[in-house]
Design a protein that fits this description.
single chain; alpha/beta; Rossmann fold; eight-stranded mixed sheet; 14 helices; 8 strands; 45% helix; globular
Amino acid sequence: MDAIESRSVPLMLNPGFWEAYMMRSCWTVGVGVVVGLTVVLAGAYLLLDCEKADLTPVLRAGLPGQFVDLPGGVTHYQWSGPEGGPVVVLVPGFSVPAYTWDHTVPGLTQAGMRVLTYDLYGRGYSDRPPGPYTIDLFVDQLNDLLTGLGIDQPVDVVGLSMGGYISAAFSARHPERVRRLALIAPQTVVMGSDPLLRAVTLPGVGEYLFTVYLGPFYMTDSSSEFASGQQPADWRERYLDQMQYRGFRNALLSTLRNLNGDPFGAYRAVGLQNIPVLLVWGDQDTTNPYANAPRVQAAIPQADLHVVPGGKHALAYEFPERVNPLLANFLMLQAP
């Protein structure tokens, strides 16, 4: 023992010993922190990844609505209202599928209209093609859907938020297929310009952030889009339902990364067409700011603007008693 102590004491008094010891200790701690952090991040990803299932024909057989195989993929759709009535196509927005129209469909069918709702690619029960998710993909989907369902006569098109951009682009490219166009709080900002959502344009970072936070928490909470400050009780559950099918995350990320054109180009193109246009907006909307309504009107001179006082972005769902009569009156003006 004395021999060991006689050797170790001078060694421990050597500054080089402590320098080497601290370097080894810091390196060990650093490696431990990195390993621990990696385990936590990987664990969070595995725990919060909702995509566990595939949309197969067997699964779809038990789902409501109908399905049609289009060039871009299988599309989920549903008819409502009397056969023979004027056809109205409702185009949903960025991430919420056809149930965003649940409070709109009854008002239109009661007015005698034949209403067609569907899920955009990557959303709801429609296919999740690999992409890229561009405005061309969504315009082609709507055009192919009408063709696939054998609809030859001009139809009325109603678009909400990003669906407004899609509807306007479709009307500009296929004016012969559109009788009337209604835009509800249409997209006026470049996709992904939100500071938080801008981060998902980064490869890898976006996939991780969407899995552990944006998807299960941020995207499922739409309370800020309701004037009441509260979303419907079943809203989160219905949103999570579509998230379980593989490809949803890629669809939304690809949309943010690739559908980044200026929607006003589509609105100006509609302004050059002989298509009647209704514009409905909530004056408290901050998602697609109501302050941009005059710009849309300027791009589409024939647009007739109707403001819903107190309405926010979910005004079609939250205030059907105000929105539905506006739509029905506008769409039925020249109904056959």
